[in-house]
Amino acid sequence: MGKSLIPPEPAEVHEVMLRDALEERYLAYALSTIMHRALPDARDGLKPVHRRILYGMRLLRLDPGTPFKKSAKIVGDVMGSFHPHGDQAIYDAMVRLAQDFASRYPLVDGQGNFGNVDGDNAAAYRYTEARMTEVARLLLDGIDEDGVEFRPNYDGQSKEPVVLPGGFPNLLANGAQGIAVGMATSIPPHNVAELCDAALHLIDKPDAKSKTLLRWVKGPDFPTGGIVIDSKESITEAYMTGRGSFRVRAKWNQEEGVRGAWVVVVTEIPWLVQKSRLVEKIAELLNDKKLPLVGDVRDESAEDIRLVIEPKSRTVDPELMMESLFRLTELESRIPLNLNVLVKGRVPKVLGLAECLREWLDHLRDVLVRRSNYRKAQIENRLEVLGGYLIAYLNLDKVIKIIRTEDEPKPALIQAFKLTEIQADAILNMRLRSLRKLEEMEIRTEDKNLRGELKGIKALLGSEAEQWSRVGEQVRKVRDIFGPKTPLGKRRTQFADAPEHDLAAIEEAFVEREPVTVVISEKGWVRTLKGHVADLSGLAFKTDDKLDHAFFAESTSKLLLFATNGRFYSLDVAKLPGGRGHGDPIRMFIDMEQDAAIVSLFVHKGERKFLVASSEGQGFIVKEEDCVGNTRKGKQVLNVEMPNEARALTTVIGDTVALIGDNRKMLLFPLDQVPEMARGRGVRLQKYKDGGLSDITTFDSKQGLTWKDSAGREFSATIRELADWRGNRADAGRLPPKGFPKSNKFGRAVE
Questions:
Q1: pLDDT digits (tens, 9 = 90+) for 193-224
Q2: Residue 579 has what pLDDT?
């Protein structure tokens, strides 16, 4: 018979609001990511995948010193029993625990290719082998003595620990990185001996603040070394709030060669930086001519890191060369600190240094109490059994007779000797060969010893001070194993202040110094041409645009732009577009209002003074350094309000000012009548009935005044010839000499 064509009855349909359904599902996903994937537990510093790897290795009895086992076996067991995710994810996590350049205190001892600092991957898990390190053993110590809570694994077939006993301050010692949903964590590694010293102080003074603990914990301690160059204040702030970052620089030294030659050798690079990518980046920057002080770079590393950086010439300042590399490459890296952890395995929270250590110490005490209770129960059980053995020893013949003759010997034994069930079971389960061990003295000695131990445990459980004293001993032991004199415990990262350099020198270190010509079009488009180009007749411009003016500069120069809004803007020539195009609008580099236009653009030289003036004829003298602003918004110097605007700027030379207005009236007066200011409206320079100022210049009365006409021809007049135009500031002036250009401009650009 064919299949029935009647469709099956639909299952019951529930209508749910899409928003509610999405919210519920996304929240479940977010919580799962936060709790079970991305954030470490504050107590043992592990995420579930790492905890499961270590517990799986424990079950495989891969203690330090035991033979290695294949990584594939470990990954398979962990995946099958505890971590139902991808095998590659588990193996990657395990590899990271074994890399001594990624983990400060590796938890896995790997044999085979486990990757390297160049960023090469580890070999596949069928080729590598692993076992636990001493650090991992410390983390698991006490797990068989009910030190921690267990929960069913994902399929309910076995149990896994909720947290490890954690006899090692792993959270801060090895650090953690993770991105969850809506939150992230980033904890750099630290030095265990320092953490233990701080923890011991915290045991003595439980209310100690993070700031106090920084006496011992100086800052992070990266497996790859490096130098932290943050100020003490910013490090303190980071540890108190649990948020911040550390600037880590590579460690380098200068090696002298023959005949005054030298090279810089980098021996330590920042944490998590791939060496091969770093070398590639430096080579790229060299090709792009972004590192003018560097000649060559090569990687001579073997076991240790050795990057050799050659200078362009032996006269280069090594500090300055390295500064340019620190700014442009990962030789300086910013490592974030975000102490976001799961408190008590449940609540995500950002903790300070003291709270992190407090969580660890409280956990150690909890584990101690749990282990003591477990041992107490064991001793009490054994004492009960020993009591039964003693009775059996004293009445051995009768016991044997009961066992031989009775159908149900257990109730009979209990009745005959007033035994408990446990004692009866112990006697019945005893092997015949053990009868020779049944000696009264031995039983009584073991009983006495156990009662002594039990008394000590009860005293420990009854006294908080005694518990903290025991925790202190445990912390001291860890400190001794990883003390500052041991190869693993010795501090690797150092601290230093960043050297101060002259900003101008640094800027020069980033750009190769070469001559350029800056070209400005009438519409405000700017570009640079290589070399000093005198003939610009062949230059192409956009339709209805043409050359406004051009001037010579260098690629390292800084330009100053004076705009009609009275503001000065700073521009770097190196950032201006070059090449064959039309360039870019100058507004792309500065935040200049739409209704503002360029009055003057020139190379910043320093040490000069300018005379600035508005269209209403007001102005003053300003020093060049007072015109330099560091932001895109520029620096307000001449205060003007629409319709008044900045109109003219000229370099101050000589002793006399010459002005001409739109009304074609010219005036000369002594320069000392104009005040010098850093900012303001200025004073009235010339009086107008209608129109305003057109142009302004200054000159030396001994040399006389020069101007250019529209054809570029130069004219000059001596001070005697100009006697009729001499007056005082704020006079109206009179019509200019014959032959003065109709444009009412002196035609002198800022030199």
A1: 999 999 999 999 989 999 999 999 999 999 99
A2: 66
Contact 608, 624 (CB under 8 A): yes
What is the arrangement of strands in the sheet containing 656-661, beginning at the earlier edge strand? Answer: 666-670, 656-661, 693-699
What's the rounded mean pLDDT across residues 51-62? 95
Query: pTM to 2 decimals?
Result: 0.72
Task: Please tell me whether residues 401 and 274 are part of one structural domain.
Answer: no
User: How remote is the C-alpha of 408 from its chain's centroid?
Assistant: 74
What's the pLDDT tens digit per position in 349-391?
999 999 999 999 999 999 999 999 999 999 999 999 989 888 8
Same domain, yes or no, for 34 and 181?
A: yes
Q: One of 127, 239, 389, 393 is an active-site residue; which one?
A: 127
Q: Are 193 and 484 in contact (CB under 8 A)?
A: yes
Instruction: Locate the DSSP E strands across 458-522.
Output: 494-495, 515-521
Let me know whether 97 and 173 are in one domain: yes
Taking 70 as the threshold, does the pLDDT of residue 501 lie above it?
no
**Per-residue pLDDT averaged across 412-426, rounded?**
89
Same domain, 403 and 536: no
The count of C-alpha atoms lying within 13 angstroms of the C-alpha of 276, restricted to the half-sphere facing its C-beta, is: 8
Instruction: Look at residue 416 and tell me whether its pLDDT is greater than 90.
Output: no
Residues 595 and 615 in one domain: no
Among 348, 320, 203, smallest CA distance to 264 is for 320
User: Taking Cα atoms as reference points, which of 526, 612, 495 lies closest to residue 564?
Assistant: 612
Judgement on whether residues 540 and 658 belong to the same structural domain of the protein: no
Q: At which of 581, 604, 627 does a domain end?
A: 604
Sign of CA dihedral 341, 347, 351, 355: negative
Phi-psi region of 432 (alpha: psi -120 to 50; beta: other; left: phi over 0): alpha
Say how far apart CA 684 and CA 665 lie, in whole Å.
15
Q: Which long-range contacts (CB under 8 A, 24 or more apart) does 486-492 make?
A: 488/105, 489/191, 489/192, 489/193, 491/191, 491/194, 491/221, 492/221, 492/222, 492/223, 492/224, 492/225, 492/268
CA angle 42, 46, 48 (to 5 degrees): 115
Residues 282 and 371 in one domain: no
Residue pointed to by tokens 């490090």: 235
- Structure-token pair, residue 175: 């650090």
Which pLDDT does position 406 carry in this prediction?
Answer: 85
Regarding beta strands 227-228 and 494-495, do their DSSP bridges make them parallel or antiparallel, or are they unpaired?
A: parallel
Question: Given a cut of 90, is residue 95 above it in pLDDT?
Answer: yes
Which tokens hold the place of 441? 């003295």
In what helix (H) or strand (E) does residue 525 lie, and over which residues does it extend?
Answer: strand 525-530
Distance, CA of 385 to CA of 400 (rounded, Å): 18
Q: Is 127 a catalytic residue?
A: yes
Dihedral angle of Cα 221, 227, 232, 235, to the nearest 10 degrees? -50
Q: Could you read off the pLDDT of 165-200 as tens digits, one per residue?
A: 989 999 999 999 999 888 999 999 999 999 999 999
Contact between 554 and 574 (Cβ < 8 Å): no
Distance CA 741, CA 418 (A): 132
Place of tokens 């797990």: 143
Output the CA torsion 275→281→286→290 (10° steps). Answer: -130
C-alpha span between 339 and 348 (Å, rounded)? 10
CB 85 within 8 A of CB 155: no
- Max distance between CA atoms of the chain, in angstroms, equals 150
Residue 265 maps to a domain: yes
CATH assignment at residue 138 = 3.90.199.10
Range of the domain at 42: 18-187
Residue type, 592: M
Domain's final residue, options 604, 623, 648: 604
